Amino acid sequence: MTHETDRLRDLVATELGRARDRTTRLTEAVDDGDLVRQHSPLMSPLVWDLAHVGNQEELWLVRDVGGREPVRRDIDELYDAFKHSRRDRTQLPLLDPREARKYTATVRDKVLDVLDRAPLEGTPLVERAFAFGMIVQHEQQHDETMLATHQLRVGAPVLSAPPPPVSAGKITGEVLVPAGEFTMGTSTEAWALDNERPAHRVVLPAFHIDRAPVTNGEYAAFIDAGGYDDPRWWTSAGWDHRQAASLVAPMHWTSDPSGWLYTRFGRTSPINPDEPVVHVCWYEAAAYAAWAGKRLPTEAEWEKAARWDPATGRSLRYPWGDDTPTAAHANLGQSHLGPAEVGAYPAGVSPLGVHQLIGDAWEWTSSDFHGYPGFAPFPYREYSEVFFGPDYKVLRGGSFGTDRSAVRGTFRNWDYPIRRQIFSGFRCARDA
Ligand code: AVJ
Ligand code: FE
């Protein structure tokens, strides 16, 4: 056994452990009533996410990679996300909190044993560990979803974290990204999911993109200017939705005589005007951009601004280079319970001078979710391919609730344009 495979086994075990520690924190912060309750029809009960994480881990690592006997074949159907909608999951005969904890722990014990024996020494090395990486990312994605459920929970605060760093200097204006080709997507990133592959050349005309995400202060100016009452700024579907859903401000905002407040994980305070706005839907983002005389960036524009290095012509793994994210680069991993002020991460800037592309808030793009040229579903069609089409918009860059293992310059998230319970914000772009 080589040192290289030992290091890979250690890395996988560490990442599985980090994900489980986070799942444990999110599910032990509340009582059993809060675990089985539906906090919003948009979300699963937390106890479903918990056992679903264990069930996916059982399917892919215990049964598929390990070739072992099922732990609980009888519950596969309950935890198949395509069989029951989120709003219906409290009606199912789910494992109770104690059973769900025991099940996920039993699966994890088996997985660590599978990991010890897995033939990771094949070439290329990292690809042999893909299934483990996929499951690490899956658990972290559900942890972010559970964090969004916490945000929808009503009651006394149960989560805490130190405040994010403050701005190190005002970041305003936009950068000009020159016309030309760049490499979008990846064929080499070990844990990249199917929809990020393969790497391909994309030619873009010149465009301008904002150096920072749109802030609460900027967004409040749009509200104060009557942006929610003027159909000129909204797409027709957006205006219909704005009317039907009575949108007047981002989700979790309320107003009082002193101004706008937001409630975060049970605590209410005045909005910080310098933080990126979160909890806006695609329609709100697009309306703001139109009001500002701009538009949302396409997904390709976002990625070129984030990864393209004009000095070398190469696309980087992250805006700052190829190094794994640290606390200095980006606001990730639920280290803080909200986005950081614009200008708080000078070490995370891209070669073109664009800030906070990774972390803080997911950024809506104008693009529908499609496969890249040469896309091949892997390891299952239901991860991405079944969502391709005009119904979903792509979001990029991750949020304060996204773990570093589950985001990179190529990472693609997607959701319906009406959704805003996710940690979604945006930045603007315009034609050059
Ligand atoms: C990539 C965040 C859209 O949560 O629906 C979780 C990730 N896929 N389990 C989602 C996912 C299967 C997915 N998103
Ligand atoms: Fe899932």
UniProtKB/TrEMBL annotation:
Annotated catalysed reactions: gamma-L-glutamyl-L-cysteine + hercynine + O2 = gamma-L-glutamyl-hercynylcysteine S-oxide + H2O
Superkingdom per UniProt: Bacteria
Required co-factors: Fe(2+)
Domain Sulfatase-modifying factor enzyme-like: start-end pairs: 172-430
EC main group: oxidoreductase
Domain DinB-like: start-end pairs: 16-146
EC nos: 1.14.99.50
Binding-site list for gamma-L-glutamyl-L-cysteine: 86-89, 415, 419
Pathways per UniProt: Amino-acid biosynthesis; ergothioneine biosynthesis
Gene Ontology MF term list: gamma-glutamyl hercynylcysteine sulfoxide synthase activity; iron ion binding
Gene3D superfamilies assigned to the protein according to its UniProt record, in alphabetical order: dinb family like domain, paralog of FGE (formylglycine-generating enzyme)
InterPro entries, A to Z: CTDL_fold, DinB-like, DinB/YfiT-like, EgtB, EgtB_Actinobacteria, Sulfatase_Mod_Factor_Kinase, SUMF_dom, SUMF_sf
Positions annotated to bind Fe cation: 52, 138, 142
Alphabetically ordered keywords of this record: Iron, Metal-binding, Monooxygenase, Oxidoreductase
Entry-linked Pfam families: DinB_2, FGE-sulfatase
NCBIfam families: egtB_TIGR03440
Family recorded in the similarity comment: Belongs to the EgtB family.
Function: Catalyzes the oxidative sulfurization of hercynine (N-alpha,N-alpha,N-alpha-trimethyl-L-histidine) into hercynyl-gamma-L-glutamyl-L-cysteine sulfoxide, a step in the biosynthesis pathway of ergothioneine.
Protein name in UniProt: Hercynine oxygenase
Organism: Paractinoplanes tereljensis
Gene name per UniProt: egtB
